[in-house]
Amino acid sequence: MSTVYLNGEFIPHERALVSVDDRGFLFADGIYEVTPAFWGTLFRVERHVERMRRGLAELRIDFDPKSLIDVHRHLLAANDLENKEAAIVYFQVTRGVAPRAHAFPTTAVCPTVYGFAKELERVPRAVWEKGFTATTVRDRRWERPDIKTIGLLPNCLALQTALEAGSTDALLVKDGVALEGSHNNFFAVLDGTVSTHPATNHILNGITREYVLELSRELEVPVEERPIQLEELARAEEAFFTGTTTEIRPTVRIDDCPVGDGRVGPVAKLLMDAYQEEVDRHRP
Q: Are residues 135 and 204 in the same domain?
């Protein structure tokens, strides 16, 4: 039995019910956020909340997510996750319950706010060292993937395509540009430089993406934010995906072609070691 948060209450998971007239159910009219915690300490929660605030503003949903920071911590404690190496806290905010109509409700409604916490099963380092694979998939999402909305069907279809091809990740491609994954950001090491698509409306600017860019600069690894042409991947020395649940995941094959020498490279290892140091810093 787990404890979840729903509209101001902490309740058992099986008691959490949402109306069939909720606009999140009917229209995917809402946003979500996933925040990691290491040994019970939330990691960059303020940045996650700020991204949630921006998304809510873009959708014109009137709710202040700052009120949820303490709720994050309560969920970790209520579910005995404070002594776990890694956990995640998920929050979703929809416009709320209203009669089904495409236009926004003309009378004020209360947003539906739902949250839960669970342990994050990290990939063992021995498995990580073998590397992972990706399949390129045409990007069929709407023009605002920079908003972390709950309308994720194109992402789900893309990942399913990759899984059925025997790959770990989907690499979304549009107009010949490698953008990002179905639920994570994409990096390539080209001529010794860590490269990733700039934070435009074409990608979701990941909190882990930002952290990896910071780590790269701290470690004096050259970085650049620019569109990566798909054909450039043929000469990439390394590639990896980043995200809250992905962490830093090295990609050794894309579309059955090896990346570099087909093994996990030194840049990914350097960054993962630094990431692990941050995890261990919170160990009791």
A: yes
Cβ atoms of 65 and 58 within 8 Å: the answer is: no
Distance (Å, whole) CA 254 – CA 187: 13
Q: What is the DSSP letter of 124?
A: P
> Structure pTM?
0.96
CB 158 within 8 A of CB 182: yes
Q: What is the CATH number of the domain that holds 71?
A: 3.30.470.10
Q: Cβ(40)–Cβ(283) under 8 Å? A: no
Domain total in the chain: 2
Strand order, beta sheet including 86-94 = 9-12, 3-6, 112-119, 86-94, 30-38, 41-42
**Dist CA 35 CA 103 (whole Å):** 31
- Tell me which residues are annotated as active site: 148
What are the C-alpha distances in Å from 129 to residues 125, 141, 150, 244, 273? 6, 32, 32, 19, 12
Is pLDDT above 90 for 73? yes
What's the burial of 260, exposed, middle or buried (CB within 10 Å: 0-12/13-18/19+)? Answer: middle
Of 90, 119, 148, the residue that ends a domain is: 119
* 1: pLDDT strictly greater than 80: no
Task: Tally Cβ neighbours within 10 Å of residue 62.
Answer: 12
